[in-house]
Amino acid sequence: MALSNSVTTCLSQPVHYVICKLGFEEKHTYDINNILSGNGEVCWQAVTEHVCYLESDQSVDYVKSIRSLGPICESVNLHFKSLTKEQFVIQYASWFHWTNCTEVFLEVFDVLQHAQATEVALGLMKLTSCLERALGDVYLLKGNDCPFLLRDLLASEQLAVVFGQSVMNVLRIFIGSPHGLNLRNVLWHGFASPQEIPAKYCAMLLFLTAGLGQLLQTYLLQTKCILVHRPYVIFARLEDLDVFPDLKNETISIAEELLKLSSFVLKIMLPFWISALTAFKQSRYADSVILLLPQLEAGLRLLFTTTNKCPNRLLTAESSALYTTFDEMLAKHLDNEEVNQLPAALEEPAMASEFLWDFLNHQEGPRIRDRLSHGEVNLEAFPRKVANQIVAFAITLLCRFSDEDMFSLKEHMVIKPLMNCASCYQSQFHPISLLKQQVLECMKSIHLWSELPTVPEEQVQTIKGLEENHEASTLIFMLSEITSQLLQYMPQNCCSSDDPVNGVLTERLLIGLCDRRICTLYSPRPVLEVVAILRKISTQCHQVSEQVIASAEVRYTQWMNKTLRSRQRHNYLRMLNSIKFLSPVLRLILILITLELVSVHSVCKKNPFDYQQYLKFLKSVLQYTENLVTYTSPEKNKWDEAMELINKTLIKIRKISDRKLMLMHLTT
Q1: In which region does residue 144 sit, left (phi positive, over 0), alpha (psi from -120 to 50) or beta (all else)?
Q2: pTM (2 d.p.)
Q3: Strand, coil or helix: 42
Q4: Helix (H, G, I), strand (E, B) or coil at 537
Q5: Distance, C-alpha 264 to centroid of its chain
Q6: Where are the beta strands (DSSP E) in 55-198?
C-alpha cells in the first residue's frame, strides 16, 4: 500500500512539464474571432501560423508550438463554455458528421461545461478514438491498408493531400507524436491521472475536429469523391468470452470497498476506478472498459516495476524510449534478457497472463483495447458480456493485492466464485486453444456423415458397369496397421483394438485429448510454427467434410428425382464408395493432429534435423489434404482421384511411422 499511495504522478518530469505547464506559460488572452469566422468556420491559417519549426531541418518545434498554441486552446475552451447546447449543435454538429460519431462529440461538449476531471479524460479518450477511425476512413480515399498506429496515420502523405501538411502538423502537436502532448497515448496507457489533463486541450481537439470536417467537405466537393465509413468490428464468439459469472450490484459495491485498500490501485488514479465501476452500474459498458483498461495497465506496471526492481519504468518514457506497456509486462523476458518477475508475483501467473493475452493481445482474440482505442467498435452497442469479464477480472486483481484485514470481503459469497473462475482459467484464443476447437468442430462435422441419406441397395444394383474397387482391401489393411501402432499412445477407455477410428470412440478420444491442459504461455517460435501447420491441416479436413455433406445431399436429391445423367449416377456411386474410406482417414488425421498437439513442446525440443524432417512430414500431409479439398469440391467432383490420394496419404503416414520420424515424438 505504501508505494501505491506515495506515487504522485506517473508522468516523467519532462512529460509532466509539457502537458501540465508549457501551454500555460504565455498569459495573454487570444480573441476567438481571430480563428473563427463570422459564419462559424475555423480559420486554419490563423491556427497554423502558431506552429513553430526548427531552423535546422524545418521539422516541427513542439515545445515552442505548444507554448504558442496554449492561449488559443484557452480561448476555444472559454468560447465553448459560453455556448448553450442548442447553439453548439446549430453551429458545429454538422461538421462532426464526417466522423460517423456525432453523438460522441456532442457528449464531449457537455463534459466541457462542467470540466469534471475524470469525465474530461474519458471524453478525450473517446474523442481521439473516434477521430482516429474517421481519419482512417479519409486515408482510404487516397490509399490502401490504413496504418495501424495513429502517429503513422497522421504522418501519411494521403492525409496531407486532403487536409494540408500544416493542418496535420497541428494535429500531431496534440496527438500522435511522442514529441508533442501525446494526449492519446498517456491516457490510453494509464500514465495520466485525471487532474493532469487540461480541459482546454480536449476543447481544442473538439474544435479542430469540426475544422477538419469543413476542410473535408471542400475536398469532397472538388474531387467528387464519396467518403465511405468502414463497418464496425463485431465481437464474435461471445460465448468464448463468458469466463466470469454475471456481476450484480452487490459485487460492484464490494469492489468499491476493495478499491480503498488494494495496493493494486494507485491513489492518484482512484477517481478513474470509481468512475469505471459507476459506469458499469449505469450500463455504460464502453465507458466502463475505456476507463478500466488503462488502470489495469497502470496497476500491473506498478507490480512490474516493483518486482523487477526498475522503479523508473513506472513513469512515461521520453520520446527517445519506449513506454512500459502491456506488451512488455506480459513478455517472458525483459529487454535486458533477464526473466520477467511479474508473472511470478501474480498468485495465478498463468491465469492472469493468459486472460490478458486472450482479451488484449492474441490476434484472433477480441483485442478489446485495440478495438476501443482505434475506434473500431460501436461504443453505443458495446456488449455487457465483454465489459462484465474485464470488470470481474479487475476485481480479482483488487482481491489478490488487498490487505489481510480484507479477508472477509475476499471470502464473500459473491467474490469467491470470481476467484474460483480466475484460478482455473485456460486460454481460449491462443493458437493451441484454437486448434483444439478446430479439431472438435471438424469431428462433429464428420460425425454427421452417418446421417447422410444413401441410395437404396436395390437401386445401386441396377447400375451396370460400376467396378469393384480393388484398392479397398489395401486401404483397410493400412488403416488397421497404422491405428494399431497408435493404440499405445491412446487412453485405454477411448479406443478399441478392433476399430480404433470408430466414430463414437474417436470423438471420445479427441475430447479427452483436447481436455488436457497444454502450456500456451510463452510458446516458442517452433511450437507456433508446428501449430500453424496443424491448424491448416485441420481446416482442410473440415472443408473436405463440409463439401462431402453438401455434395451427398444434393446428389441424393437428384438421384431420387431421377435428374442425374448416366455418368453423374456412376460418379455419385463412386462418391458413396469413397467416403466409406475417407471418413476413417479424416478421423485418423484428426487423431494424429491431436496427439502431435499434446506433445508439441517436446517435439520442438528435438535436434534441428529431426525438427525439419518433422515439419516436412506435416507439410506433406497438408499438401494431401489441400488436394483432397480440390478433388471433393463440387466443381471437380473427382472421386477416383480422391481414392488414389487417400491411398497415398496412408502410405506416407505409414512410411513415417515405420521410420520413427513421427511416432518417436508421440507421448501420452
Answers
A1: beta
A2: 0.90
A3: strand
A4: helix
A5: 25
A6: none
